[in-house]
Amino acid sequence: MPTRKRSATMSFSPSKETRNKRPRKAKEDSPPSSRGLELEIGHAPSPFYPPATHPTTPRSRQKKQFSAPVSAAKVQQAVKETTESPSKLSPAKLKIIESLGSSPFPEFAHPTHSECQAVNAALTKIHGERLRPKQLNSASLGANCGEVPSVLDALVRTILSQNTNSTNSSTAKHSLDETFGTGNYEAVRTAPLEDVVDALRCGGLANIKGARIKRILDEVHDKYGKLSLDHLHGASDEEAKRELMEFDGVGPKTASCVLLFCLRRDSFAVDTHVV
To answer: Among this protein's residues, is 63 annotated catalytic?
Structure first.
């Protein structure tokens, strides 16, 4: 019986072995947790976003709400408990706090005080003298590393500026204000996580930053009864930096930025990878 020839138009189905050899699309890498101190973003637990079910009601713009005033005595008691209770700082952060004011290279004598002055004089000659503004701009809308009088607002803005450029961080801050009301962190705290993440998605790393900001807001509210860290204006540099660094995702650079721009201290923010 003659064999039938395969038609030229007959489709060819690849074998199972051939299909298995096809390259698979690589999964997107997540931020390395081993670089948490310099990235200040890698230690966050997964916020499990997106949720299994989406909200059934459309998200509407929420009006600004004000929490009930809290007595100064309650704030002072919370501050006292913070300073007297065991530190929540990780061993790595404790080591950084203990090393403040010392050089990471004690056997290397440079730069000397005179060398620093010479560099400052050269930069001043080119760019002009840099002076702090007499007053901070509370109406500032950008995520400008905390250059606002509210310490909590400054901390949130600085977190939004982590691992991105000023354009992206400011876009995220504008979106957060447009969604929940300008500076309305009570609405952010009580909102579903997916709504906060959605508002920050335009700035990048929305899952991590959204979960981080909500967690900080909850901690501040539970500890002080209100959403404020303004008592840090009266704290020492070390006390302020220690309390800020107790929050998850707040490393030495983020805390230093808040000290420098908001608390107006002589703090020099440097990435640990630059050191």
So the answer is: no
C-alpha–C-alpha distance, residues 258 and 241, integer Å: 9
Distance between CA 268 and CA 255 in Å, rounded? 10
Q: Which of 93, 209, 226, 253 is catalytic?
A: 253
pTM of the complete model beyond 0.85 = no
Closest CA to 210 of 2, 12, 22, 49: 49
Euclidean distance between CA atoms 226 and 228, whole angstroms: 6
SS3 assignment, position 172: helix
> Quick check: 183 and 194 in contact, CB under 8 A?
no
Can you tell me the distance from the alpha carbon of 240 to that of 256, in angstroms, rounded to the nearest whole number?
A: 10
Report which of 26, 65, 75, 46 is spatially closest to residue 212, judged by C-alpha positions: 46
Which parts of 53-195 are beta strand (E)? none
Give CA–CA dist 26/238, Å, rounded. Answer: 45
For the chain, list the domains and their CATH numbers. Answer: 140-275 (1.10.340.30)
Give the chain's count of helices (H) and strands (E).
12, 0
Residue 22 DSSP label = S
pLDDT tens string 69-102: 455 555 555 545 544 445 577 787 787 777 776 7
CA separation (Å) from 237 to 135, 140, 259? Answer: 20, 25, 7
- Tell me if residue 275 falls in helix, strand or coil: coil
As a whole number of angstroms, the distance between CA 244 and CA 152 comes to 10
Question: Span 102-111, mean pLDDT?
Answer: 81
For the four alpha carbons of 54, 56, 57 and 62, in that order, the dihedral sign comes to negative
